[in-house]
Amino acid sequence: MIKTVLFDLDGTLLNTIDDLADAGNWVCAQHGWPTFTVEQFKHMVGNGIPKLVERFSPENARTPEQLAATLAEFTARYDAHKEDKTAPYPGIPELLDELRAKGVPCAVFSNKADPLCGKIIAHYFGTGRFAAVRGSRPGVPTKPDPAGLYALMDEIGADRLRRTFCAVHGIHDGVPLAAVQKIARASARGDHVGNGQCQILAVDGL
């Protein structure tokens, strides 16, 4: 039986790619750098904002000092516009409410900067739906390193040595509606469910 559900944020709970792309292209335009399509940005995200900034920066603008300055520019712009186009994927609020009604605790673990995670989750989902929301923090490796996930599991009391939790991760396509229905049913069974774009799996540790 699945007792805990851990969600990724971008591309799983929320469709954030347009706001990320807009902020990135704004920074590029300020410097006279090439800009990118939303589809191109989809291939740049997933490893945290510092890596995203590195990927959209030209090779001649990737010194540590320049990347730090660009990261600050991007973070400020994105923070001011992170709710312009972002929205929950269809079925996500209903899924969270159903899991809460079943007594299944949920948490969020993301490579997005920790302060941004807390703000955006509170804006779109309010309080009470997640036992914890954790993003990228100093000293905590980003995914796919499992250290941060293990720490979150310990924090919320999830047993990582038993098949009692479900990890949900998408790639900027959201959790498909069919998978939403499956995960709600799986919360009572512990099944492996998913499709080619979104991994929804019960695991015995990572």
Outline the secondary-structure elements.
Layout: E1 4-7, E2 14-15, H1 17-31, H2 38-42, H3 49-56, H4 64-81, E3 87-88, H5 92-101, E4 106-113, H6 114-125, E5 132-136, H7 147-156, E6 165-170, H8 177-186, E7 193-194, E8 198-203
Parallel strand pairs: 1-4, 1-6, 4-5
Antiparallel strand pairs: 2-3, 6-8, 7-8
**Approximately how much beta-strand content do the residues carry?**
15-25%
Q: Helices and strands: which structural class?
A: alpha/beta
Distance between the termini: 18 Å
User: What number is the mean pLDDT?
Assistant: 81
Helix and strand run: EEHHHHEHEHEHEHEE
Helix content: 40-55%
- Rg over CA atoms, rounded to whole Å, is 17 Å
User: Biggest sheet, open or closed, and with what strands and sense?
Assistant: 6 strands, mixed
Helix count from the secondary structure assignment: 8
Shape: globular
Task: Give me the count of strands.
Answer: 8
Q: Which stretches are low in confidence, meaning pLDDT under 50 for 5 or more residues running?
A: 186-206
Give the strand line-up of the largest sheet. 5-4-1-6-8-7
Describe the structure concisely.
With 206 residues, this protein is α/β, with parallel strands linked by helices. The chain is built from 8 helices and 8 strands; from the N terminus they run ββααααβαβαβαβαββ. The chain has helices at 17-31, 38-42, 49-56, 64-81, 92-101, 114-125, 147-156, 177-186, and strands spanning 4-7, 14-15, 87-88, 106-113, 132-136, 165-170, 193-194, 198-203.
